[in-house]
Structures are given as structure tokens and as C-alpha cells.
Fold this sequence. Notes:
Strand content: 5-15%
Structural class: alpha+beta
Strand order of the largest sheet: 8-7-9-10-5-6-11
Amino acid sequence: xxxxxxxxxxxxxxxxxxxxxxxxxxxxxxxxxxxxxxxxxxxxxxxxxxxxxxxxxxxxxxxxxxxxxxxxxxxxxxxxxxxxxxxxxxxxxxxxxxxxxxxxxxxxxxxxxxxxxxxxxxxxxxxxxxxxxxxxxxxxxxxxxxxxxxxxxxxxxxxxxxxxxxxxxxxxxxxxxxxxxxxxxxxxxxxxxxxxxxxxxxxxxxxxxxxxxxxxxxxxxxxxxxxxxxxxxxxxxxxxxxxxxxxxxxxxxxxxxxxxxxxxxxxxxxxxxxxxxxxxxxxxxxxxxxxxxxxxxxxxxxxxxxxxxxxxxxxxxxxxxxxxxxxxxxxxxxxxxxxxxxxxxxxxxxxxxxxxxxxxxxxxxxxxxxxxxxxxxxxxxxxxxxxxxxxxxxxxxxxxxxxxxxxxxxxxxxxxxxxxxxxxxxxxxxxxxxxxxxxxxxxxxxxxxxxxxxxxxxxxxxxxxxxxxxxxxxxxxxxxxxxxxxxxxxxxxxxxxxxxxxxxxxxxx
Length: 509
């Protein structure tokens, strides 16, 4: 029996990743979905249809009759979703049993339209129009049914459902509508790109390579196909933050696409080493710099862009020629951790302190930001009790204890802030005293992933006491401690102690 955590609401992703495993066991995936959908705990869950639809993608064409039989049982188990599931099942059977499926779709439709509009299942119209068109050999008849669904969806302010129906409609006019909508979206995106070239800065993905994020509506992610990746490695265009294996690189790109797609549209931009080098030569830029890649992406049109995600039966975005569901879209593909062979050497500086407080430390290039908070705190000498935040080009990442709507540090990784030498960001500790640290990536070096940990490399200056009032108050205390006639000398003695050496490194014990 599946654990309770997979229900209320239905969420099988963890179980599917485990079932698919390294070998791509489609039968195991089907078994998990089928077990879950026939579990009484799944009753009434709208995700039943979604997982039933996904389950079909793990059947080969010669297995579709058995899939139809299974769906018939699913309809019995979930009568409340009979319209959506019934249309889905009919789409499997229409070519073999046109007359029978026509009767089924007609009966379902007659029953559906008797319901109040707000109780009709719009998902019926995802598949019913194409079934009707194939069963009757009449695209316009299917298109008329699609029109009905589109009108209903729009009247209920369900634009996403309306778009799903348009995109799947068999009618030529709907295909034109879908194409025109896509063209309009592309024009809007190109306008955004032109705006970006006038001043927007590049964003970064939560793991791995920096992406061009013009605004939440668009992400174009640079990608090197396998042949180009191998060439880039051989020519030292890829630094230690890039995985050695192209499969691990694809995992990172897939993860970055998934993260960015939650904000809007995501596109893969295939690049070539020759193209990068030519652009770098023309513009006088470094071909190994990500900023050069981003500028190259920004300078290119979207003709070769690949929209993400593709349909699971469509070719994969990575260029492997395999189906997406069998390649980067297969369950379990992103479950394996990617070895981090890059070590970032960071310089942490506490501006306005005198003498200047600095630390140099080495951290994994993909360290999670809550772990980076602990690393910086230990290197500086903070006790870590106060709230903190990171500030980068794409906004703030906040302490997980905060109620703020910003992304939480236990969910975001260092590449979101910086992933190449010379990039900077801010680490802010204790919002009362407001200790603002300037953090600079000095270099990224290749190391053994097994030995890639946090190390303090050196530094200068004592860490100010916690809660002393901030940088300017600390400077006053240091000055008062050195002057026995200063009115605040005794207070400075209480805060700092007689032996305080502001130039020495002091860290928390």
C-alpha cells in the first residue's frame, strides 16, 4: 500500500521517480499510478485525470488496448471524472472502433450538457473534439464541439482550459488560432528581448548555468548539445562549475528549465562553440565567460529556440532524437545528484570597518544558501542567531525563518547569486545592526567532488561583537577603547574587553 503522504492531495512524483529508476521501468511506473488511482484515498482528487493521462505515455502503441481496458476500470472507480476519463479512453479506441467510440462520446456529451455550466468538466473537451472528428471523418464537426468547449471555458474565465482545447482541436481554424497566438507571444517575447538589450541584466537559475531572465514571463536558457559540450570541454570553454558528464549537465539544465518555467515561458537556446567564438571575436569578449554566452543569446533571434517542456511523445529538447518521456522527461532523470567539482573562492568584506574586516573561504560552487550563511558566519565569527538575507541581481533570498514572500535560503543555491569569477552579491546579517557583507567570487577551481567542503583560507580583522549597534557604533567603540580619556571608554571596555585587537582575526568559539 502506498504511504499516506502520496494522498490528500494526490502527489506521486516521489514514487514515480523511484519506480522508474535508472533503467526506465515503464511497467513499474504504470503499476504505481494504477495502484494509486484505484486507492480509495484518491477519490475526488482532480489529479486522477492528470495521472491517468500520464500513465498512458508509458504504454507502447501495441499496448493501447490494455490501456483502454484499464481506463474503463478507472472510470468505474471515479465516476465523478467520467467525462474527462471517458474522452481520454475514447481517444485510444477511435481508430479501431469508430462507431462504438462515437456512441460513447455522444452519450457523454448529452449527459454533460444537462449539467449547470459551472459543473461541466472542461477536460472532456481536451479529447472529445478530435475523437468526434476521427469517428465521423468530419473535422468541422469536431471543431464545432471544440467551439462549445472554448466558449464554456471563456465564460467561466478558464483561459488555460480554453487554450488547451484550441491547441488540441482538429479544426483548421483553431490550428490557425493557435499558430497566431503563438506568433503573437513570440512577438511579445521579442519585444521583451529588445527591452532587455536596452538595460535589463541577466538573471540566474537556482542551480547551474545563468539564464537570461528578462522578466517573469520569459526565460531563454543557453544549452550546448553533447557534441558541442565535448568540444567546449576540450577547448577549456567550460569551467569547473560545469559537470564532466553531459548527462549531468542535461540534468542541471532540465532542473533550471523546470524552476524557471514556474514563472512563465521557458525556451532552450542551442548554441555552438563556433558561434560563441565568432560572437566573442566580433565583440571583443571572452568566449569562456557566461556573460558572453548571455550576450550571444540576447543577440540571436528565437528561430532555433525550443519551447519547454515538449510533449512527452515529442523529441526531447536536448537533441538526442529520443522521445522526451524516454529522455530528459523520464521520471527519475533528475533524481540523481550531480557531483560538484567546482570550488568557489569567496572574499567576504565588511565595508566601513577600520581596520577592514575580511575573510577568504572556499565553498562548493553549488552550496545551498542556508549552508553558505553558516559558512560565512563561522568564518566571520558571528553566532548566527539573527535573521539574514542575500541580495543579488535578481532580488533577495531570505532566511527560511522569515515570513517574507522572497525565496527561502534553504531552497536556493549559490549560482542564483553568482557563478563566475568577478561576480558580487551582498550577505546581510542582523537586520537591527545591519551588518552588510560584500561577497566577491575570486575564482572557481576544479577539485575532487568528494573533498569539496568549506574551508577558511585566511582573513584580517576581528569580528565585531553581536548586538553592538552596527558598523559605525563599532568604530566608535574601537576608537573609545584606544582613548582612555574618551567618555565611552568604560562602555567600550564592557563591549570589547581590554585585550581587544581590531586587526586580529577573531571567530566564534
